[in-house]
């Protein structure tokens, strides 16, 4: 009898223990799913605020510059150009200040690869992209130079130290950015039909409000993106690189994607390639440079294959200008770009899972 009671007691004890463990595991999974959902929503919110903040800041600053008779050329080269790279720049400055080095590099390299393979791929499939002569002979080679220079600096080919993008490297990249701006300025001055920058008319109070709210949106959105991207990576057990390379990079490239797709649908694609290549140059010479000046960026050689892909894609784009339609990205070439992007991204994600 006593043995039976002991058996019943022991059996009941283990049942309760099993139930407790089961409920604890279920609670952990439920909590993890809730956290994942909240972080994902905050990341989307951050990207939305980030992109809208950049748009408002550009509109306010452009209107203010126009009010004081600043030329369209200067507005286009400074305020508008900065606005297109503002999402990547703000995300990287915040990530760099918090030593999230893989997000710094993943964001820029991911954005550049998305620009080159995804955006040009989608846009070129919708409508073949005509490329300006200056883009073919100057801007595409400059873009390749930017990738090669970043590769050499990051891997410390010039000094015998651990892989690092130092503040001195950042200054060198920033110098290259200044030279590129000077090139664009000279190119724009010789343009026989310069395009007028469209600027909204608004009161002085509204201009200042747009600038202030836009800057606040950039900072708030950038913090939401970086912090929640890191949390999502932690919950899923993924690296910061893959989150920066995919979600953050594609998110910060959404303005370029939307603009390029709309232009393709309107069959107005004569400057699309130039804008994408210009954005890639900005991201390396300005965004990486600024990130390194904020805090030296520790370079992980795992990003080298991404550099090879970016360089190879740039060379492919240059060669494509001389195959099929001259100075044109044909549909079959755009399909190759898109398939390479989808395949490479799928391979990276598969390695993480």
Key features of this structure:
single chain, A middle domain of Talin 1, two-stranded antiparallel sheet, mainly alpha, 11 helices, two-stranded antiparallel ribbon, 353 residues
What order do the helices and strands come in, and which of them pair?
Layout lengths: L1 H66 L4 H26 L3 H26 L2 E2 L2 H22 L9 E2 L1 H23 L14 H33 L3 H13 L1 H12 L6 H23 L2 E2 L5 H17 L7 E2 L1 H22 L1
Antiparallel strand pairs: 1-4, 2-3
Helix pairs in contact: 1-2, 1-6, 2-3, 2-6, 2-9, 3-7, 3-8, 3-9, 3-10, 3-11, 4-9, 4-10, 5-9, 6-7
Explain what the structure shows.
By secondary structure, the protein is an all-alpha fold. The protein is built from 11 helices and 4 strands. It has a single domain (36-352), classed as NCX, central ion-binding region (A middle domain of Talin 1). α2 (72-97) crosses α9, α3 runs parallel beside α10 and α5 packs antiparallel against α9. The longest helix has 66 residues, at 2-67. 41% of the residues are buried. Residues 19-23 have low confidence and may be disordered.
